[in-house]
Amino acid sequence: MQERLQKIIARAGVTSRRKAEGLILAGCVTVNGRVVTQLGSKADPAGDKIVVDGRAIRPHGQRVYLLLNKPVGYISTVSDPEHRPTVMALLRGIRERVYPVGRLDYHSSGLLIMTNDGDLANYLMSRASLVPRTYQVKLAEQPAAGKLALLERGIALDGRRTAPARIRPLVRRDRPWYEVTLVEGRYHQVRRMFERIGCPVLKLKRVRIAFLTDQGLRPGEFRHLSPREVRRLKGHG
Ligand code: URA
Fold first, then answer.
1. Which atom of ligand 1 is closest in space to residue 188's alpha carbon?
2. What is the CATH number of the domain that holds 16?
């Protein structure tokens, strides 16, 4: 059956559908030896030989869904030009080409979903999915009165207002801990929000993504998501 090329590439776990479109436009995709740069192009995953960046794709590659508890000191990309350790080094025994869904800073720790399912990755990263992510943060000092309410209502970051957030105190001391729940994941969002109110974040840990928690996962460990968890993440059950 003929299907759009970007859909076949995403389903094979090479990358997300949007990035697959970029690869097609950039001339990195061939079908039966011919370069295809037309975005609407279709192919038959069962019969055509589709090559992306010089590697033939396996159209029905096994889908893999992992939940990793990233330690501080790992970068959440597949490779790093500065040669810092990446989260890939933590995935012993996983042969599929999975990649992280979103980012956790080098200095942050906690939950990261890794998968080769481009459609799920796209969905989770889209603004429309509204998947809540919860962080525990240690602040350099107690925020001034009223400042947290500002963050909860939303502030302008990069010219766009942040979505309402939920913030509650966890440990009250000079360097207090708070729990922050966001439904979006913009670049360094938590750190930048607290910097904006004059309270730098000293530690940041993601402890929950939707209904998934770090229970039973020590830093550096990962587990496979169950089929039910994957269905729930996709919003079907
Ligand atoms: N927000 C940040 O600032 N850093 C992270 O790693 C995650 C969310």
1. 3
2. 3.10.290.10
Active site residue 158: no
β pairing state of 201-209 and 109-115:
parallel
| 171 and 141 assigned to the same domain | yes
- 216 and 205 within one domain: no
The answer on 118 and 137 residing in a single domain is no
pLDDT value at residue 61: 64
Domain CATH code at residue 155: 3.30.70.1560
Sign of CA dihedral 218, 224, 228, 233: positive
**Same domain, residue pair 148 and 163:** yes
Question: Which residues surround ligand 1 with Cβ inside 6 Å?
Answer: 104-105, 108, 188-191, 204
Residue 105, pLDDT above cutoff 90: yes
CB 16 within 8 A of CB 7: no
Band of the pLDDT at 147, cuts 50, 70, 90? very high
In the chain, how many H helices and how many E strands?
6, 17
Q: Count CB neighbours of 10 within 10 A.
A: 24
> Could you give the CA distance from residue 166 to residue 159 in angstroms, rounded to a whole number?
21
Name the pLDDT band for 177 (thresholds 50, 70, 90): very high
User: How many domains does the chain contain in total?
Assistant: 3
Choosing from 53, 105, 119, 174, which is the catalytic residue? Answer: 105
